[in-house]
Amino acid sequence: MVDFVSLKRQFDRYSPEYEDAALRAMRSGWYIMGNELKTFETQFAQYTGVGYCVGLNSGLDALTLAVRALGIGPGDEVIVPANTYIASVLGVTENGATPVFVEPDEFFCLDAEKVEAAITHRTKAILPVHLYGQPCEMERICSIAEKHGLYIIEDCAQSHGARINGRLTGTFGTIGCFSFYPTKPLGALGDSGAVITSDPVLADKVRKLRNYGSGVKYVNELAGVNSRLDEVQAAILQVGLRHLDEGNEYRRRIARRYLEGIRSDLVTLPDTRLGAEHVYHVFAVLSEHRDELQKHLLDKGVKTLIHYPIPPHLQECYARLGYSRGSFPVSETYAQNELSLPIYVGMPDEDVEAVIEAVNCFSV
Ligand SMILES: Cc1ncc(COP(=O)(O)O)c(C=O)c1O
Predict the structure, then answer these.
(1) Whether residue 65 has its Cβ less than 6 Å from ligand 1
(2) Domains of the chain, residue spans
(3) Which CATH code, of 3.40.640.10, 3.30.420.40, 3.20.20.80, 3.30.720.10, is assigned to 14-242?
């Protein structure tokens, strides 16, 4: 069987380092907001080249607290891609703000061409998602945001280490939001996330919000939450960060092999934007016969996933927004046709070859 992802294989590659890091944190006697967190935050800020990193409990918290710290709430609108994972939208609606969906481009990212038409007097921010690990057209999105005086909240949950024109995702916007869910390019061994920003006031606000709204113990300036990245995960993430670029290169090598090896009229391979360094968190192919392809691959012993079968505007939780089938046809077509092939750090070469062979013998 070809696994879709094997976290065990990823872990085994660096297990002595992970075990040392976890033991160091466990033996320290300090488990919340200690030196491991400070060290990771400093290292991730240095890696990204922005001034501040604030560690949190999850990528969803990163988005929710970023929106909150920017003062975005009821009556405000935030532009989000219509084909994203639900968390990008939840970060907006958790604050009582309204998501305004915009269709994706041919690279599965927010279509910069269509953003301006969605801006109203209520718009406060644009929330591009570097979906599947490929950067959005950030220079264009930045100039639109600047022209209209909007914040940019980057969802980098899938794009750690991805660059466009040499610049890292997360460093273009007002604030960059990361998930460290275990399968992500930089993954913990549990839930966690972070924001990065070059704005010290904004960083300080998120830092307070994650800790009950408190900067000084038992003094609460804001009505905050508990979203603190714990010491064990912070220690684990230092190991992951050391190997992030190497892991991204590992997946890129698999992607190159898929791109040269897969030859099928029934499957469209993903394209990369000019100037983009894709990190292939997901290797997304399209097929009008997606469900048959998925079944065929499973019959051949290859596990796949769909990212994502139902776009946010058609989810029951957002019925109140009043959208229906046909509201965002590009996103709906992606939801119908997308299939994610296995790609992960530690994936054996023979599994990669087995995937190529299985896709190439697909017929309808
Ligand atoms: C695009 C995107 N945004 C946000 C999130 C939320 O991250 P988390 O699972 O850490 O809350 C995810 C992760 O699953 C994601 O894929």
Answers:
(1) no
(2) 14-242, 244-360
(3) 3.40.640.10
Q: Are the beta carbons of 115 and 103 closer than 8 angstroms?
A: no
Protein fold of 244-360: Aspartate Aminotransferase, domain 1 (3.90.1150)
The closest-lying atom of ligand 1 relative to the alpha carbon of residue 129 is 1
Residue nearest to atom 8 of ligand 1 (CA): 59
Q: At which residue do the structure tokens 């481009």 appear?
A: 105
Distance between CA atoms of residues 135 and 302, nearest Å: 28
The per-type count for the chain, helices as H runs and strands as E runs, is 13, 14
Q: Please calculate the CA angle 215-218-220 and round it to the nearest 5 degrees.
A: 55
Q: Which of 5, 58, 60 to mutate to test the pocket of ligand 1 (most atoms within 8 A of CB)?
A: 60
Question: pLDDT in tens for each of the 364 residues of the chain?
Answer: 999 999 999 999 999 999 999 999 999 999 999 999 999 999 999 999 999 999 999 999 999 999 999 999 999 999 999 999 999 999 999 999 999 999 999 999 999 999 999 999 999 999 999 999 999 999 999 999 999 999 999 999 999 999 999 999 999 999 999 999 999 999 999 999 999 999 999 999 999 999 999 999 999 999 999 999 999 999 999 999 999 999 999 999 999 999 999 999 999 999 999 999 999 999 999 999 999 999 999 999 999 999 999 999 999 999 999 999 999 999 999 999 999 999 999 999 999 999 999 999 999 9
